[in-house]
Amino acid sequence: MNAWTESVSLRSHMRAVEVVMTAAAHQYGRGAADEVLFAVAGILHDADYEKWPEEHPKRIVALLRDRGEEELAHAISAHYTIWGVPCVTTLDKALLACDELTGFIVACCLVRPEGISTLTPKSVKKRLKSARFAAKVDRNEVRIGAEQLGVDLGEHIQFIIDALRPHADELGIGPRASG
Description:
Layout: H1 8-27, H2 32-44, H3 58-66, H4 70-77, H5 90-110, H6 121-128, H7 139-149, H8 153-164, H9 168-171
Helix pairs in contact: 1-2, 1-5, 1-8, 2-4, 2-5, 3-4, 4-5, 5-7, 5-8, 6-8
């Protein structure tokens, strides 16, 4: 990941998804038994995006397959529905449901003086309706992700907020000093 990703913002996104996926192992998966697998999927899902955007996610998927990590490779292949790879496992579905939405929630935090500390699902849903806010986030992926995981979107938003809050300072989404 470090060798392929120099951008601080992309590394931060990948770290945020790792944090959320670690929590997702407990919320949607088998808990501690899935924690490392879910975390690695989160940290590596965009590892090849910066260096080879036109090939994303083929490079990281090939590397993982070469190392015998088929479950991780499949989840990363399926984390964006436009690629046509079906989500089969809970890992696949969790990565799809957490990736875009985590990025969107982080964007919501960055425009609020209080950051994530007072962020609510209602506020996130309101921002989702504005196509101009965080315009690169695919709202359809957010919707499909929650549907495929079989969760209520508002509850899933709250889950991601709760997963990110303890890491607010590290991720730069905590309250900003006024002045």
